[in-house]
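Memo subject: From amino acid sequence to discrete backbone structure tokens
Action wanted: Derive the backbone structure tokens from the amino acid sequence.
How to read it: Take the token row as a discrete description of the fold.
Attached in line: The record itself begins immediately under this heading.
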Amino acid sequence: LDQLQGNPNFEWLPVLLPPNSWMVLSVASDHNDTCLASLAHMGLTSISSRVIEVPELTKQEQKEMLDGLLLQKEWSPEGQVNRRLTRQQRQVIDDAITASPSPLFVNLAYEHARTLASWDELPQLPKSLGEMLDFRLNVIEAAHGKVFVSHTLRYLCASEFGLTIAELEDILSLDDEVLDELYQVWQPFCRRLSPMLFARLRRDLGGLLSEFVIQSRSLLSFSHSTIRSLVEVRYFGGKYT
């Protein structure tokens, strides 16, 4: 609920539910009091007694979550494969997620781990969420170009709900700074962004972005409000207005 913009207004929530029906709402802890007050104003006075605080992940839960993510089936030219880490890689990642025991941090650590080859020596990882996201974006910028990556994420920040892939490709194709960076060695017959280049970037951004269906349109946007906020700080120096 804390991701809703402006003053929270939850009048669209049903006050009465059919028998044997339940509704689960989630809210960030720093917005808890505001949201609960708004719900109480609607007459849901008993909701405060039904709040369940979600604690930080235990070491065992961190291990199980990372193991589950690594066991996900991923498509490759050779078929569907499971990810495996070397002992050194796993130790470095375990140390990092122990210092920041949140599901979002574990997800970011996994996003980096899934790109590693068995011969890659993994350096010490950052121990905070913001530093971990910066570390991951630095790696992506080095692979795809700083202008290409930063402008793509800036356009997504500037959109209210997200952009379709076609819209984003069209916008980037009108961005001369992006095209100048991508086409330094040769110039295509049609000067616009290659869908293949965007597909590769989309693959490496991984779980940082998700697709949402809004008004029957599939929009690409950030998978979590915290990721969006951290990207705004990185590329805009704060909240985009």
About this structure: Residues 18 and 24 are 14 Å apart (CA to CA). The first helix runs from residue 32 to 41. Residues 75-80 have pLDDT under 50 and may be disordered.
